[in-house]
Structure formats: structure tokens, C-alpha cells
Amino acid sequence: MLFSLRIALKSLATHKMRTVLAMLGVFLGAFALTGVLHVTLAMERKAVIETEKLGPNLLMAMTGNIRFRRGDIRPDAGNTNLKLPDAVALLRGLPSAVDGVPFLSFPMPIRAGDKKVMCQLVATWPAYPSIRGATPQYGRFFDQAEEDDKELVCALGPAIARRLFGTAEAAVGQSVFIFRARLTVVGVMEEKGSDVSGANQDEQIFVPLSTFMRRMSNKTYIHGVYVRLADGADFDAAREAAVHILRKRHDIKTDKGQPDDFKVLTAKDTMEVKQQALDLVQTLGFISSSLSFGIGGLGILSIMILLVRARRLEIGIRRAVGARKKDIVRQFLIESGMMASAGGAAGTVVALGVLAVVYRVGDFPSVYHPALIGGTLIGSAALGILAGAYPAWQASNVEVLAVLRDE
């Protein structure tokens, strides 16, 4: 075995260019398979984390149709059909509803002193932190008395607080302006990052819903309702009940086939939206890696056939001094397997290096799947052995006398 291994290494070193070309397809296949599938796994993990940021047992009813953009979920803010009484009806009518809050959300410029930044304004009720799993890091969230009295107060996302006041802690007690309205900052929220809906929760400003609707904008509609369901609630049943309540309130005729003018989603639904995009990426990864592996296998097959023809004398001499057919077969299978294994190992190592950079730059969780890495390496070796089977058979059937006579 060691003798065959030494011959294989010498042969591959002698034909460097052929060896590199044969390895290239397997390298690309291993790189694509390792890279794309690991990125997909990391994106799935990130989607799970983002879904958890939506809040525990969350159901969302949103106005109009939901727009999907780059995997993010956006309510159709142009619709005005969802009203505050609809939110109240949902919270009272859903048997599994524990609590909930209506909300309005708009991109808004916010100013403090000579600094002005864009943020996402969220007008809602005081129960928002418990519904969405958000906690003030400094200060507090606005309370029910401030909601009832339409007070000009707000809570800031930490990114907005830092951009306006240098540090999040320094923002508490300061004033910010939205157009001409002067709001007092009563709290700064903890770091949350983006949720699965695509909203960066660190770049939001939260104001009492009554304040925004009556003192700042004179709006009569809402964009949606967040409802927290009881532990163990049937999400499908809750969704159907919410749809029934809203269709009845909006006088949508089922027998006439009238479509909903709203959308009801659960955290599970938002995850499925992300998963559809990830499945497409994964499928494309499988296709590209399969093509690369196929090309690599053909490359190894071609190179090994050329090597058999170039080494006919070597094969003849070995057979003449007592080498058996299976020794020749083993020799060429070792060589083809080593080429493919080296290409697969190189592709995997480079992919892991690129993944480390992608995880860091893209703020993805670091996911490394040992079974996937091991499977890629084993698959590469198996591909090489399979591709080398026919050339090895050819080599073992070389006619010794004919070779020696020709030479």
C-alpha cells in the first residue's frame, strides 16, 4: 500500500498541470457545496433568532396586503381600512388573546439640536414592550396615564439615541423634535437588532398612539395589531378566528368571493416566507455544486485515461515482474482518489475561510456543520474513485507482451 502511495505521489508531482486541472472541478464543487449550504444554515439560524425577536406567541393583523421585499415583510401602509375599533374587537374576540397593541408606523425625520436623522416612528400602546419582548435599558417606556392624556413623550431605540446624543444613557430626559412637536425622551430601549419583518428595532422612536393620532397627525386609522396569544394556543385556529372577526367587521362577503382587505400572520408564517427564499438559495447551491462535481469527475476521468496511455511501459514492466491486475487497479484508484480528495479538501478549506469573513461582515451566527464538511470530503474521494474506475480497468488489461514488443 505504501509503495502504491509513493508511486501515486510521484506520478501526480510529475504531471502537475494535469493534476491541477483535474482537481479544479472538484475544488469548485466542494467550495460551492460547503459555502452555499453553510450560508443557508446560518441564514436559517438568523431567521429563527429574528423570529424570536418579534415577541412570544405573536399574531399580527395588518392593513391591506403584505409586501415582500428582499425577504422582508412590510404592511401596505397606503391602506386606511383598519381602525382602532378593529383592534379592540380582535383583543376581545380572540379566545386565546392575552394582550395586544395597535400600531402606526412611518419613516420620520427626528431632530435634536443641530442633529437630524431618519428613523421609524412607531405609535402604539404602553403594553408594546411586553408584547414584542422589548425592555427599556435606560429610563422607562411611556405609561397608560401618558397615553390617556396624549402626552408628548417618547422612547428611543439605542441606535437613534447614540446618533443624537452620543450615548444611549444621555438621551433620557432630553428633548427631540418631530416636525414642530417637542417630545421628552423618557427611556431608551435595549439592543434588539432587526426582526424577521425587516425592521431595525434599534432605529425606532416610540410614541403614545393617542398622542400621534390626535396631536401630531390627526390620523383615524392604524397599520396593524400585535396580539400575544396564550402559551400552547392553536395558532392556525387563532388566525382563522381573527380573519372571521375582521371580515365580519369590514362587511366582506364570503359568498361573493370578496378578498380580504387585511392580512393575518403568525411568527410561523413569517419564518415560512424567509424559508422559501432560503430553499431557493439551497437548491441553486446544490445545482451549481453538482455541475462542478460532474465536471470535476469528467476531468479526472480524462486525465486518468491520458495517464494510462502515457504509462503503458511502466504498467507492462510492473506486470512483467509480478504485479497483479488488482495491484494496477489499486494504483490508479489511489491516484484518482487522491486528486479528488485534494481538490475537495482545498475547496472545503477555502470555503470555510470565506465563511468566517461572510459571518463577520454579514453579522450571521457562526454555523459549522461537521457532518456536512465530512460528507463533502468523503464524497470528493468517492467521486475520484468512481471516475478512476474505468481507467484503472484499462490499465489492468494492458497486454504486457504487446507493450514490451512495441518498446
Automatic annotation (TrEMBL):
- Give the record's membrane topology: Multi-pass membrane protein
Per UniProt, residues of the ABC3 transporter permease C-terminal domain are 288-399
What broad class describes the main subcellular location of this protein? Answer: membrane
Query: Where is the MacB-like periplasmic core domain positioned along the sequence?
Result: 19-242
| Source domain of life | Bacteria
- Which compartment or compartments is the protein found in? Cell membrane
Which Pfam families does this entry report, sorted A to Z? Answer: FtsX, MacB_PCD
One term under GO cellular component: plasma membrane
UniProt record similarity statement: Belongs to the ABC-4 integral membrane protein family.
The name this protein carries in UniProt is ABC transporter permease
